[in-house]
Amino acid sequence: MLWLIYGSAGWIGGQCRDLLNVAGQKVVSGRRVTSLKDVEEDILTYKPDRIICSLGRTHGEGIPNIDYLEKPGKLKDNIRDNLLAPMFIAQASMQYSKLAAPIPTLYIGTGCIYEYANPTDLSHPFTENDHPNFCGSSYSTVKGATDLLIDAYPHVINARIRMPISDDPNSRDFITKILNYKKITSLPNSMTVMSDILPILLALTHDGKLGGRVNACNKGWVDHDWILKTYQEKTGEALDYVLEPVEDQNARLAARRSNNVLSSDKLEQWMKLLSPETRKLYYTPHLLPDIKTSIENICIHRANLKSSSSQESSETRRLLVTGGCGFIGSNFVNHWLRTYPEDSVINVDKLDTCSNIGNVEQPNSPKYKLVVASINNKDLMLHLMKQYDITHVVHFAAQTHVDTSFGNSILFTESNIFGTHCLLEASRIYNKLRKFIHISTDEVYGEWPAGSCHETAVLNPTNPYAATKAAAEFLVKSYGESFKLPYVITRGNNVYGPYQFPEKVIPRFITTIMANEKMTIHGDGKQVRNFIYVTDTVRAVDLILRKGKTKMIYNIGSKDEIKVMEIAAILLKIMKPDVKLEDSIIHVKDRYFNDCRYSVMIDALESLGWKQEVKFDDGIRMTIKWYTEHPDHWQNEVQTST
């Protein structure tokens, strides 16, 4: 589904964009709206399935003590952005009905359109049937007019946001604002926790069955003083402010502007109409979240953020890396020791066939220690975490050779599932990790004949190896939900480069050509894979460790989609250009089930700032160079390729 967002660069629009990306939706940004034609041209260009209007200037533009729209000469800006632009978007999305049905549209409105004659009388919360009655500012007057006029468009959800609050501090966030107040008048208010309400609004718009006004607020209400007391209690931060008594006449008059309690009954009723598929897609709750519980959790989250930020700036990281003598793991260890020389790396590897202590380039570094052991020893893992005061776990260790999984699948269960479970249990008992990075694979998605799969795609593993990796992922997620483990999962494409054991297709073909032997091709060799150079994968894991959001899954992939037969031809052309391909290959029986194609979307990873740096033409030449310069690095090569 394609979403067209007006205001995607703004605070609320940006949060909508990020949530849609997580849900696997396609998102495009609309132009600056100055006329009906602007929106019509966007609709004809993009042909969106859904539209979001998150435009509009607010009072202070996030700047304390500056009422931006009340300044002389700003009425035109107010009318253009808060009235005309939303009406143009509503009209254009309705006109689209000439071609099909009206485009379901979400308009982010405001609840700052009411005032109580008596701010202490809350016996009748404002419902969607109450007309706007607050004209104390030009902003609220214009927004109130928009609220009424938008009723003419039944395909538009008019979501009244009230005193929005975000998980992280932001100048537009109400908690951040109130922390800067020196004086407050503490009266009840409905509020909108964005991480609670936006997924509900997106899900409702996605289903496209409803329209009209809805108070988009959490259940219940709180007063300002309660927020400040809760913030102090949960964060331990002392605040300096004066609470003005509500009996004061001036305070009562000022409070009429900031005191709104809205009924959330309609939103609760709408939530019951969501389809199960859409509810799952956007992770929407079954019950409307309570405002007090959500604010308490946000205060705890901000305290943890501040603590983590302080630790990151004042302390070095101490990483427990599993499988750090394997291919990707060793490249990660080498990268980390070079890039962050003050950090420590504890490498746990049982040194099976695919591992090599020579893969680590600085084995004598005082910041590096190798522990030869199996991660299946939970007590040892816990001991290492305590002994070295581990801050992060990066879990590479796994059995990964698909062919072997067909003949000895129990080994994969023992290593990939039980081993991960032991590591998770040790992490739970230790309970001091800042982040647990679980390295998974794109093979958990199963075959993907066309297009690319998003992180929210249903897992459909088709071989024992992929099934054990999927099972391990579910264990990781369960520990995040049950024990608040701060996990992140990565799912990567086929990786190639230096230090890879020659059981995988690229190093196997290279070493076979070096030995003047024939390359073995499974089946017809038309299987398609995306290949990514190992340094790009390592940079992705580095970025995810430092900036990735917990409870997130990040695909790691490239645009280099190549058939197995094409790889053989490319390598032969570079290494032995005078030799014919048909004279250098031999076809062998295909696997029991050989997925023809994998491909993943990497929007979430790119949103962190990652970009592929090494193209296949360059990466393959660097890989050939390394293997030709290190012919004796691997003493025990396998005889089949993947």
UniProtKB/TrEMBL annotation:
Q: Name one Pfam family in it.
A: GDP_Man_Dehyd
Superkingdom of origin organism: Eukaryota
An example Gene Ontology molecular-function term:
dTDP-glucose 4,6-dehydratase activity
What are its cofactors?
NAD(+)
Enzyme's top EC category: lyase
Catalytic activity from the UniProt record: dTDP-alpha-D-glucose = dTDP-4-dehydro-6-deoxy-alpha-D-glucose + H2O
Q: Which UniProt keywords apply?
A: Lyase, NAD
What Gene3D superfamilies does the record point to?
NAD(P)-binding Rossmann-like Domain (3.40.50.720), UDP-galactose 4-epimerase, domain 1 (3.90.25.10)
Q: Where is the NAD(P)-binding domain?
A: 320-623
**Which SUPFAM superfamilies does this chain map to?**
NAD(P)-binding Rossmann-fold domains
What EC number is given for this enzyme?
Answer: 4.2.1.46
Entries under InterPro entries matching the protein: dTDP_Gluc_deHydtase, NAD(P)-bd_dom, NAD(P)-bd_dom_sf, Sc_DH/Rdtase_CS
Q: Which GO terms describe its biological process?
A: nucleotide-sugar metabolic process
What PANTHER family does the record point to?
Answer: DTDP-D-GLUCOSE 4,6-DEHYDRATASE-RELATED (PTHR43000)
**What family does the Swiss-Prot or TrEMBL record give for this protein?**
Belongs to the NAD(P)-dependent epimerase/dehydratase family. dTDP-glucose dehydratase subfamily.
Protein name, as recorded: dTDP-D-glucose 4,6-dehydratase
- The record lists the organism as Adineta ricciae
